[in-house]
Amino acid sequence: MSVQPKELFGPEFIRDPYPTYAWLREHDPVHRFLLPQGMPAWLVSRHDDVRAWLADPRLAKDLERFLPPDALPGDHVRDVLTKNMLASDPPRHTRLRRLASKAFTARRVQSLRPHITSLADELLDGMGDEGTTDLIDTLGLLPITVIYELLGVPRRDWEAFRAWSVLGSDEQSTGSEDFETSTKSLKEYTQALIADKRVTPGEDLLSDLIVARDEGDALSDDELVAMVFLLLLGGQETSISLIGATVYHLLGHPEQLALLRAEPERLPSAIEEVLRFDGPAMNASMRFAVEDIEIGGVPIPAGGIVFLGLGSAGHDSAHVPDGDSFDIRRSASKHLAFGHGVHTCIGSALARLEGEIAIGRLLARYGELSLAVHPDDLKWRPGMHFRGPAELPVSYRVEPR
């Protein structure tokens, strides 16, 4: 039986949002609530509604068009948050994605497999044969290293770059002085990196983005900065959360872990099941009604803010039988973890590849793996968009041969 909903985005909800989502799908599938800033918004929770409206142009993404002028304080914040694909609508979105896609092909992603595997093995070597570690801090370095290398960030700058980008992706700090300071530093550093690569291009994604052309069109410097910010957000945080959530749910379902160890060829299906069951994006980024609309019979006025519940959609038993159960044997379902329509995540292939390699190498090396704290004591990422463990202490040991 579904339960009365917890406070949306409060501590209990952040730890486990799915009972609340179940109640909303049954009783209030287009739920009106207030954002922390006091503005009304609507949360859509049923799969079919979420999928349909992800691709409906009557919900727009342009932050500058719909948000009040003071909602994004500071020129630096406005630049990185409003000039990227995620906050754009066609035709600007179409142009940005077309140019980015030229440097982010499936062939390029697959060519990274040997190198990502080598990086994963290096990180596991550093963990040794047994011990206890926070996997978010150790194996979570894999997607960080991959995206920094892809962008061509010099290794000497990684620590500072990581500090700026972590704060820039922290929903709780948005609008704060620290957020603006870090965003300014990230923007200025990226501008200097772009200027350097215009003179001396390298074998990296940022260099490719700089020279990407489509009938004479190219990305401006401001658009390149915003693209870097978006790639950092997607290339680090979502992949780290996917790796953490996969380990967490496998350890919480020992029979599933045993099955995966016995049949490692199920690993791609296991990653897809985690994406459906507890993916790294709890809600799609906010959208705005361009006109008066109705979703599920609920009227939403023009300019109304709408959140499409990706996490809730994955548990909707009207689409996935027994959607609240975790089962890696499940046939690959068309989940919405990476979105749907023109805004489908451009980095989804890389996230899947990193998840498969990280989990595959971890399980191949450590025959003994367990959570080092009680599940109720884990901290989860706060906020309305990202989902995943903020920490994942595990104990591990190589089985004697």
From TrEMBL:
Pathway where this protein functions: Antibiotic biosynthesis; vancomycin biosynthesis
Keyword Iron: yes
InterPro entries registered for this protein in UniProt: Cyt_P450, Cyt_P450_B, Cyt_P450_CS, Cyt_P450_sf
An MF annotation (GO) of this entry: heme binding
Keyword vocabulary terms for this entry: Heme, Iron, Metal-binding, Monooxygenase, Oxidoreductase
Function: Involved in the coupling of aromatic side chains of the heptapeptide of vancomycin.
Listed PANTHER family: CYTOCHROME P450 YJIB-RELATED (PTHR46696:SF1), P450, PUTATIVE (EUROFUNG)-RELATED (PTHR46696)
Family: Belongs to the cytochrome P450 family.
Protein name as it appears in the record: Cytochrome
Species name: Amycolatopsis orientalis (Nocardia orientalis)
Lineage: Bacteria, Bacillati, Actinomycetota, Actinomycetes, Pseudonocardiales
